[in-house]
Amino acid sequence: MVSSRQYMHSNSASIYPRRGTSTSIRANLALIIAILLGSLLPSIAAACSSCGCTLSSDWETQGISTIPGLRLDLRYDHIDQNQLRQGTGTAGSFTFPNNGEIELGTLNRYYTISLDYSPSLAWGLNVVVPYIDRPHETITPDNTAISSSHTRSLGDVRVIGRYQGLFPGMDTGIMFGLKLPSGSINDNFNSGPDAGDQLDRSLQSGTGSTDLILGVYRFGEFNLNWGWFSQALFQQALNTKEKYRLGKSLNVNFGVRYNLSRMVIPLLQINAQVRGRDSGAEDFSEDTGGKLIYLSPGVTINMAGSWKLYSFVQVPLYQQVNELQLAPKWNFSIGVNHRL
Q1: For 58, 120, 181, 228, which has the most beta carbons within 10 A of its beta carbon?
Q2: What is the DSSP string of 52-77?
């Protein structure tokens, strides 16, 4: 997660398992890989709870389907960062002018298109293209009037491959890919005392960096009606842009699903993220990074013609931010998935 600004969401593991034989060797290997991913983060101070969606919605591409082919996913995420937090609590009152920036609100609307192609059961490739609609209001240092912006732009594209053929049961997979610097880093304030000035880097449509993405996932069944998944996803910037680098992040998700009927499948996820502070010469990088844990109930509805509708609400169980950051009280996601 990022400060009041940059959105990160994890796009990963299946919540609908395929039947397969589980072994302690496979379970231990998945655990070891997750631990190794975590060990790549020695310098992480915290992850930002200010922005929110760590939800996993790639259930169609990792475990649910036994049919290779092309799939389309359309998703909307609503993240209203309207609560100023400090540490693990809400921030106190402020007087103006202030010697620091006091953010008032950031409404993130993310429209995401994902195309997934599986030439076989073992291999797959996922391309994620986000569009960002983000109004933002803040009072910058030594001002009393509000400066505002409204960003409407494509964000950073992600290309993620996966391999699910580690074991005969096809229930454990690895992910590997890149986040590309396709989003803008030149968005400006539209009105107020700072009109025409460039937004903080964590509020830009893109990060300006190419990021490495590594992950592991595993899924299985408790019984005929109950299934589960677990997933860990690590991301690290490989380069800096104008002396600014996004902090490392680690997402860990666990979910269960219940086959209520052939049409309706209730779901429940626990989503956790740890993200380090951004670094660089620009101001306000200290107001980034933190730790968060979300509880995410949801439902999948199987519709006609290979269409699936899914929706989730995320409620924070724990939020810890560095310095002052905006955080949401809840998040909402809805999407459709179609096998072409």
Answers
A1: 58
A2: ------GGGTTTT--S-EEEEEEEEE
Structure tokens at 269: 């996820």
Please tell me whether the overall predicted TM-score, pTM, comes out greater than 0.85 for this model: no
CB distance 309 to 336 below 8 Å? yes
| Coil/strand/helix, residue 26 | helix
What is the predicted pLDDT for the residue at 57? 60
Q: Give a three-class secondary structure readout of 173-188.
A: EEEEEEECCCCCCCCE
How many Cα atoms are found within 13 Å in the side-chain-facing hemisphere of 221? Answer: 12
Three-class DSSP category at 275: strand
Which value, to the nearest 10 degrees, does the dihedral of the CA atoms of residues 230, 294, 4, 246 take?
A: -20
- In angstroms, the CA 24 to CA 34 distance is 15
Tell me what pLDDT residue 154 has.
97
Give SS3 for 213.
Answer: strand
Q: Is the dihedral of CA 189, 99, 325, 201 positive or negative?
A: positive
* Dist. CA 277–CA 322, nearest whole Å: 8
- Residues 84/326, Cβ–Cβ less than 8 Å: yes
> How far from each other are the two terminal CA atoms of the chain, in whole angstroms?
32
Residues 273, 184, 209: CA angle, nearest 5 degrees:
55
Looking at domain 24-339, its CATH class is mainly beta
Confidence at residue 163, expressed as pLDDT on a 0 to 100 scale: 93
Mean pLDDT by 10 residues, the chain (340 residues): 36 33 44 36 32 56 60 94 93 88 94 93 93 96 95 96 90 94 95 94 91 93 91 93 88 92 93 90 72 94 90 94 92 92
Backbone angles phi, psi at 196, to 5 degrees: 90, -15
CA contacts within 13 A on the Cβ side of 258: 7
Measured between alpha carbons, how far is 116 from 318 in angstroms, rounded to an integer?
33
Give the 3-state secondary structure of residue 283.
coil
